[in-house]
Amino acid sequence: MGKIAFVFPGQGAQAVGMGKDVYAAVPASRRIFDLADETLGFPLTEIAFGGPDEQLKQTVNTQPALLTTSVAFYEAFKEKGVRPDFVAGHSLGEYSALVAAGAISFEQAVATVRARGQFMEEAVPGGQGAMAAALGAEREALRSLCEAISAETGLVELANVNCPGQIVVSGSKEGVEAVVQRGKEAGAKRVIPLEVSGPFHSSLMKPAAERLAQTLQNVALQNAAIPVVANVTARPVAEADQIRELLVRQVYSPVLWEDSIQWLLEQGTDTFVEIGSGTVLAGLIKKIDKSARIVSINSLDALQAFA
Hints:
The protein has helices at residues 20-25, 27-40, 44-50, 53-57, 59-78, 93-100, 106-123, 139-152, 173-182, 206-217, 240-250, 257-266, 280-288, 300-305, and strands at residues 3-8, 86-89, 129-135, 156-163, 166-172, 190-193, 228-229, 236-237, 269-275, 293-297.
């Protein structure tokens, strides 16, 4: 028997209206949205369901809204009785994975990611940081180019190693612009600037990580009941103190998504259940392994169709 991994999306997967259908139909899911509003003290659910898009796109709203949607779908999916062997999440999605693994309560997770979003937005003044997606580049060649540009022009680093041929870079505006112009030197077919509010997963995020570390000191983390494959190491973590340390490092370290999925495949994982808004992770996993079975639980219809 092959193994099953539940995977949870991160920023970029959000869409106005996400989770509305499951909120209306599943009491356990409705409870999660209501709990988010209660915990945060403002109507996050209204922003998730009604927008406007500009408001949902603000990191400080996107992060708790995506977490809430993922956990709401997870609560509904739990009723199917499928138990994962592993869980993983892309960046912010790691918090959804930790809720599913029993390492953190939903209330503490939603409050923490709201703060995390705020710290990330405030770490670098607007317009000074940037991110871009390099398509078709080799990882080591792109890393070398980033190192050269960091020495000459401005800091730029690998931020998300998503799948073969898709790597996101992050850093100073000047550094990222130089990668956009010189990406072909690393074999990139093109480099596309991303619409983001900061240089996420670069060392410019260290001030945010320091603030998050203080917040996490007051969060009651438990050992995970299911191994969580961490973004920073692409290896499983279960011990509470290690989870805390990796969540801090995650803010300024690259998301090793391709490596995480490769590790899961090596353990005999053949089914991935993507839980939450969109199908971003399904697309990435298909590029890593065409033969993997991927199910996206992102609507009431998908939930009811699952067998």
